Structures are given as C-alpha cells and as structure tokens.
C-alpha cells in the first residue's frame, strides 16, 4: 500500500493544493536519482497544505493511480469523494525533468497541464509532491 503525503499534488478533481502568491514559483529540490518506473502504482493522499485557493474544494479520500507505459510516459487516474460520491479524471503523464512530471488532462476538448515535482519518495510507503 502506498501512502501519499502531499504538500501539493495537481489541479484536478479539487485534489490540488498550493499557496497562492504573486511572483515566480520558488525553486524546490527534486528527488535525486528519481526512478519514474518505480513511481508507478496507487498513492493515497493523507495530508495536504491548505490554502485559500481551495475554498470549496471538499474532496476527501484522494487517490492517484500512475501507470507507466515506457520511458517518460504514462497515464494517471485521480479520484476523490464529495458528498459520498467518488469522482474520477484521467490524464497523460510525461517526465519533463528530474523528478518533474507534466500531467495533462482534457475537459470538453480543452487540455490543462499541471506539473508535479517529487521532492522525496521511497517508492513504496511515501511520496512528497510539490506543485506550483
């Protein structure tokens, strides 16, 4: 079982978190020697950093499922529960830098990219992700 500790994940299914401020995103140090293929699996969100930009985002029991197709590509399926109903969204994954993943979701023909930097993980028990 993967337990996923998130400071921020992605801006989908109201499962995202970030601190809203003006200016460029701060530089964060990604996981060294990140193994994209080993990141594959199901991750359960157990914590996130709250912020005013999430008001109304009441999703609980957030799950991110990563399926790696080949070097640098894959699929993601995110879900969460609101008022007892689980909602899902799927997207594409692309490794775009050291421990930096672009997640692309399409809604009504429009694509939205989010970026996740894996700060630390042991690939089995925990992962800490950052999105800005």
TrEMBL record:
Top-rank taxon: Eukaryota
Molecular-function GO term, any one: pigment binding
Keywords linked to the UniProt accession: Disulfide bond, Signal
SUPFAM superfamilies in the record: Lipocalins
Gene Ontology BP annotations: lipid metabolic process; response to reactive oxygen species
All copies of domain Lipocalin/cytosolic fatty-acid binding, residue ranges: 35-110
PANTHER family (UniProt xref): APOLIPOPROTEIN D, LIPOCALIN_CYTOSOLIC FATTY-ACID BINDING DOMAIN-CONTAINING PROTEIN
Descriptive protein name: Bilin-binding protein
């Amino acid at each position: 079982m993967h337990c996923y500790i998130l400071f921020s994940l992605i801006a989908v299914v109201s499962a995202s978190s970030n601190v809203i401020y003006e200016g460029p995103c701060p530089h964060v140090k990604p996981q060294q020697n990140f193994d994209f293929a080993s990141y594959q699996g199901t991750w359960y969100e157990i914590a996130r950093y709250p912020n005013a930009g999430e008001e109304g985002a009441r999703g609980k029991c957030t799950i991110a499922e990563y399926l790696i197709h080949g070097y640098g590509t894959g699929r993601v399926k995110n879900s969460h529960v609101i008022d007892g109903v689980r909602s899902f969204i799927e997207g594409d994954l692309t490794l775009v830098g050291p421990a930096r993943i672009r997640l692309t979701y399409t809604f009504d023909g429009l694509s939205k990219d989010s970026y996740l930097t894996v700060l630390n993980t042991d690939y089995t028990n925990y992962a800490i992700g950052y999105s800005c």
